[in-house]
Write a structure and sequence with these properties.
This protein is α/β, with parallel strands linked by helices. It has 16 helices and 15 strands.
């Protein structure tokens, strides 16, 4: 292919993607609305795309930028002079490393466990799966915050880490970190605060005079914090920081191996080779926006959040899951209003809002992560119109017999043929093969009545089939 053909093909491929600018994609991407900063960051990514963070002695520029990013974060998290940090590929890797480091710091524990609230990010369940660590899940209270007393009671001699969120992704509220951290410290257990989405917002929210539950290293007992640069630091994907109170806490995170004929491998993260592009992009973004710029962007995002939360609360048929404490808003619908159809109608109007399936007694909800570039008036106008359209359409019907069948299926007993039938029944496969239907509400309605284990299995089967290259000649 010629360069022009390649550019044309890339543009054609990208045409079906969600927009990353404009503040209308309210999950997955975060938009500051600063075109010049975005362009500068992309230049930095390109300039360092071929650099390799595997060896800081070979590419000292990347080490310098990483250390400067950690230094910028120190006052935001009330880090002591001893605080150290590591740049990772994203929040999930930061959370994985927090669990891995806590496990490896306690080699005498034969059956290590972590204690988490049921609102903890799925990354910690992934860490438990990957690293052979039991995940002890404690139900949250009616305010959707972690139950500090119940979490303290769940800690035992096998516990290597306790986790709190600032804020939780699903509900947008901050857990009672002081009580959780104190209980962990009393048992000599590490306490990690997952501030991946709030770590670059809550410090500025406090400076703007908003009430913020203490969550930083100023809280005794907090040993590590994760905060994402590619969320509300508005850096290119993917960059996150895992911060430790002191170097001794970070040391078990490192991996080294010299017992082979090749070079001595030394890694600070799960990755070995690491492109310098995200490091340079994050550094350029943070340097360009600066402390005063982040204060201004946070004020914009929080003002938009306030307006959107108030608008949702005043809109008949919707209600807030909880008053937002950062930039995340979740809303549930009345029984006569289908929240999945509302999400579809928002997509028709050029807005992506994220559907969240039911969990236990919790109803399904719509979820938005609001950026500085989000226009609250335009959002609320689209939402009001979408609610009207969804109410007129009525709830998505699910055959009771199908619902009963889904509740009885054991994913472990299903083979490819059964999964193919389930995908077809859900509208994810047809005569023309796999693909997403124009409207997702019927799919989400079916998934919503299925038990979580079956949801997981069906979506894994769908992803597995999507991620297969075309056969020659097709």
């Amino acid at each position: 292919m010629t360069p022009d053909q390649i550019r044309a093909r890339l543009a054609a491929l990208q045409a079906d993607d969600l927009p990353v600018h404009g503040g209308r994609t309210l999950a997955y991407v975060y938009d500051a609305g600063l075109a010049e900063v975005d362009a500068l960051a992309r230049e930095a990514v390109a300039a360092f795309a071929g650099s390799n963070g595997l060896d800081p002695t070979a590419f000292p520029s990347l080490l310098a930028m990483e250390n400067e990013l950690v230094s910028f974060a120190r006052p935001l998290v009330d880090g002591p002079a001893t605080m150290v940090g590591t740049l990772t590929s994203g929040g999930t890797e930061s959370c994985l490393l927090a669990v891995q480091g806590a496990r490896d710091a306690r080699p005498e524990v034969r059956d290590p466990a972590i204690v988490v609230p049921d609102t903890v990010h799925a990354a910690f369940h992934k860490a438990g799966h990957y690293f052979g660590v039991r995940v002890v899940v404690v139900p949250t209270g009616p305010d959707h915050r972690a139950d500090a007393a119940a979490m303290a009671a769940a800690v035992d001699d096998s516990t290597v880490l306790v986790v709190a969120s600032a804020p939780s992704y699903a509900d947008g509220v901050v857990d009672p970190v002081p009580e959780i951290a104190a209980a962990a410290a009393a048992r000599g257990v590490r306490c990690h605060v997952d501030a991946c989405i709030g770590g670059w917002v809550l410090p500025y929210a406090a400076r703007l005079g908003r009430p913020v539950t203490p969550w930083t290293f100023a809280v005794e007992g907090v040993t590590s914090i994760s905060t994402d640069l590619h969320k509300y630091a508005y850096a290119p994907k993917g960059a996150s920081l895992l911060l430790h109170r002191d170097p001794a806490l970070r040391r078990p995170q490192y991996f080294a191996h010299a017992g082979w004929p090749g070079y001595t491998m030394l890694n600070a993260t799960l990755q070995s080779t690491r492109s310098g592009g995200p490091t340079a992009g994050a550094w350029a973004t943070v340097q360009a926006i600066g402390d005063a710029g982040y204060l201004r962007l946070t004020e914009q995002a929080l003002t938009a959040t306030d307006a959107i939360a108030a608008g949702i609360a005043a809109l008949p048929g919707l209600s807030l899951v909880a008053p937002p404490e950062s930039t995340l808003v979740a809303a549930v619908a009345d029984p006569d209003l289908d929240v999945f159809t509302v999400c579809d109608e928002m997509a028709e109007r050029g807005w992506f809002v994220q559907p969240q399936l039911s969990y236990g007694e919790r109803r399904p909800s719509l979820h938005v992560a609001i950026s500085a570039a989000t226009d609250p008036a335009a959002f609320l106008a689209a939402l009001a119109s979408s609610v009207d359209a969804a109410r007129e359409a009525g709830p998505v019907p699910v055959d009771p017999g199908v619902a009963d069948l889904l509740r009885t299926l054991d994913p472990a007993t299903l083979g490819d043929a059964e999964f193919d039938l389930l995908l077809a029944a859900g509208g994810l496969a047809g005569d023309e093969g796999l693909g997403l239907p124009e409207r997702m509400a019927p799919v989400n309605a079916l998934l919503d009545v299925a038990p979580p284990a079956l949801r997981e299995a069906v979506l894994v089967a769908f992803l597995d089939r999507l991620a297969r290259p075309f056969a020659p000649g097709t």
